[in-house]
């Protein structure tokens, strides 16, 4: 999803989920950094950063409006920092998925009863 699509899609999604399941937490998770983004900063690096900035802005806007039950997980450590978590710089390997699970798990422990 492109950054300009987030404002038009996130709020209706959040509202629909909360209408159907008012006590269920909603977790926003940033896009993982492309493993080669450091080398291709103007294209790949800029792309995921713009998506994450738009996601964070939408999350902050909803929280400021008083929407409850929202949580946010940054991408900083989702893949680790050794470029070994993907097949092609984008798609996770088993190691990549394990690292994402390990990074997300502490947040979920705090969020879920």
What is the quaternary state of this protein?
A: single chain
Distance N to C terminus:
31 Å
**What about the largest sheet?**
2 strands, parallel
Give the low-confidence spans: none
Mean pLDDT: 87
Look at the helices and sheets and give the structural class: mainly alpha
Counted beta strands: 2
Radius of gyration: 15 Å
Give the overall shape, derived from the CA principal axes. globular
* Share of residues in helices: 40-55%
Strand order of the largest sheet: 1-2
How large a portion of the residues is in β-strands, by DSSP E? 5-15%
Blueprint of the fold:
Layout: H1 6-20, E1 26-29, H2 41-64, E2 70-73, H3 94-111
Parallel strand pairs: 1-2
Helix pairs in contact: 1-2
Would you write up a description of this structure?
The protein has 113 residues and is mainly alpha-helical. Helix content is 50%, strand content 7%. Strands 1-2 form a two-stranded parallel ribbon. Helix 2 links the parallel strand 1 (26-29) and strand 2 (70-73). Helix 1 (6-20) crosses helix 2. It is globular and about 40 Å long. The chain starts with 5 loop residues before the first helix and ends with a helix.
Concise account of the structure shown:
With 113 residues, the protein is mostly helical. It is built from 3 helices and 2 strands, in the order αβαβα. β1, α2 and β2 form a beta-alpha-beta unit.
């Amino acid at each position: 999803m492109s950054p300009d699509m987030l404002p038009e899609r996130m709020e209706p999604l959040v509202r629909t989920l909360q209408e159907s399941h008012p006590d269920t937490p909603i977790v926003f998770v940033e896009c993982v950094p492309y493993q080669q983004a450091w080398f291709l900063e103007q294209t790949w690096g800029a792309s995921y950063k713009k998506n994450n900035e738009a996601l964070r802005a939408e999350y902050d806007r909803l929280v400021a409006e008083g929407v409850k039950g929202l949580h946010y997980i940054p991408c900083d450590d989702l893949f680790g920092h050794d470029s070994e978590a993907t097949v092609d710089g984008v798609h996770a390997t088993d190691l990549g998925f394990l690292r994402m699970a390990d990074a997300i798990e502490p947040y979920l422990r705090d969020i879920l009863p």
